[in-house]
Amino acid sequence: MATRSAHPLPHLLRYAKPYQLQICGAVLCSILRTLLDLAPPFLIGIAVNVVVERKTSLIARFGIQNPLTQLLVLSMLTIAVWGLESLSQYAADKLWRNLAQALQHELRVDTYNHLQSLELGYFEDRSTGILLSILNDDINQLERFLNFGAQNLINFFTRVFAVGMSFLLLAPGIAWMAMLPIPFILWGTFTFQSRLAPRYDTVRDRAGIISDRLANNISGIATIKSFTAEAYESDRVYQESDVYRRSNKKAIALSVAFQPVLRFLILLGFVLTLYLGGREVLQGSLSVGTYGFMVFIVQDLLWPFTELSEIMDEYQRAMASVRRVMGLLDTAISIPHGNNSLPIATIARQVQFDNITFAYSDRNDILKNLSLQIPRGATIGIVGATGSGKSTLVKLLLRFYEVQNGRILIDDINIRDLNLFDLRRCIGWVSQDVFLFHGTVAENIAYGSFDASHDEIIHAAKLAEAHEFIVQLPLQYDTIVGERGQKLSGGQRQRIAIARAILKDPPILILDEATSAVDNETEAAIQKSLAMITQNRTTIAIAHRLSTIRHSHCIYVMNDGQIFEQGQHEELLALNGIYASLWRVQSGTH
ABC transmembrane type-1 domain: from which residue to which, for each copy (predicted)? Predict the structure, then answer.
């Protein structure tokens, strides 16, 4: 992730480079709108000048001597200024808001796409709630800033610069008195904001934590209810929400502390202008119109500083969010694509694990110098105790993780050299932890095979022994399965997952505890289909229930990250080792 010390604004500007023209247009419209908004006080000053000085007024110098004509010209000019101000405001608002929507959309999509490219271990080290907070809350915070905060910031600096220059040009003798408080205000404001930045970083982090808590609790609501843990979870939400509230309270305390001092300094500048300017009018060194303009406009010079802390507050909130988003975008992709393609039509389906060693982060080796060769079209079974590395083996084949030593080959090609999409397209994986998306049964079976016809979906469901229960659902294949498939039983979810893998029609099929949640009758039916399912495929079946893989061409028994036994079912029973012991326990002959 990006360091907190790195300022996120340059990074954001580099990211927004394709929108440079739109940004320049928005900035120019905002500046023009602010300048035109400052025109009415100036026009009022000219009007006073016309009424008081008449034929010697400012407008009279342009050859218009009649005071009534001067006022008519001034009125027309006022209409033009107001019309242009409205037009520039419309243009600025439209440009900024469209920019906010475009940048928000692109940033969210790019961040999500980058997130998808990260290795599986990245997600195991981070909570879903925090990642969702970045993709939603932080990017929305940037949108809010572009909608309103950016315009306010430009408006502030344009207003101060324009009014300050007007003072220097019209009354240089007293301009310095009006501007006297400005350096102190700026110093105080930026000092406060530098202290606010880390506090807002903490606020955003706390927002991610509470988002994570809420996401976990909603996902695990059935567990909470079954253990009557509502009060416990309510207390945890209360505690984390209270920490978020207190972190916000610290930021708020510092944010509002400067307001009273700021107002006093502004009052000082206003009073000095009022008094000294009036004195120069009485002495005849300053016109009444100019004095009226200055008294009126001094508020536009100094009062915006009362909003500076709020503007900077919005800015710091946005930058804290940008820092988190850019930190995610800067996360390096540790499992890159290879350069070689692997067309499914040409794959020979031979898989080899060559002396591989692998350990999860900060843990001991789970696979140790393991070698395994799977011939084309063979069905092999892998068994072993929990934690022996069975599922890790297939996750390495899919390159969810990278081996530390050794090679994994498909058709004698190192999978590191293969395009990841090609590699994963040729593998169908049925995980023991089945995930179904919120949608219909048909949509879940066709996931990854999006152009499949309805007949093909039904055929895959029949092979997976899923068709019979599907047609009994309220809307059959159009029945909504609910989030994560919660409206279906575990066995039904597994059969839909098997149908999904069958429909993909991959050259290599991985069944990772694919029948662990089905009853014996359904398992027997699926086993009958396996002969057809595994035809012309290289199949890796991982199972605790040995009956699932007893007819495999070869069965490998794993223990402590290595292969201890291998052979067909009868051969392993004859060895009277680990496999035979497991078989006796499961068959009731122990």
Answer: 25-317
Which one-letter DSSP state was computed for residue 404? Answer: S
Give residue-wise pLDDT tens across range 272-286. Answer: 777 777 777 787 777
Domain ranges within the chain, ordered by starting residue: 8-329, 349-426+538-590
**Which ranges of 303-406 does DSSP label H, i.e. alpha helix?**
304-329, 390-397
Q: Return all residues near 139 (Cβ < 8 A) that are at least 6 apart.
A: 104, 107, 108, 111, 321, 325
Cα distances (angstroms) measured from residue 119 to each of 116, 126, 154? 8, 12, 41
The pLDDT tens digits for 132-161 are: 878 888 888 888 888 887 888 888 888 878
Helix, strand, coil fractions of the chain, as percent rounded to 5: 65, 10, 25
3-state secondary structure 201-219: HHHHHHHHHHHHHHHHHHH
Q: Cα(385)–Cα(96) distance, rounded to whole angstroms?
A: 60
Distance CA 21, CA 37 (A): 24
* H or E element, residue 437: none
CATH tag for 349-426+538-590 (out of 3.90.580.10, 3.30.420.40, 3.60.21.10, 3.40.50.300):
3.40.50.300
Considering the entire predicted model, what is its pTM? Answer: 0.71
Topology (CATH) of 8-329: ABC transporter transmembrane region fold (1.20.1560)
- The label of the residue with tokens 């540790």 reads 334
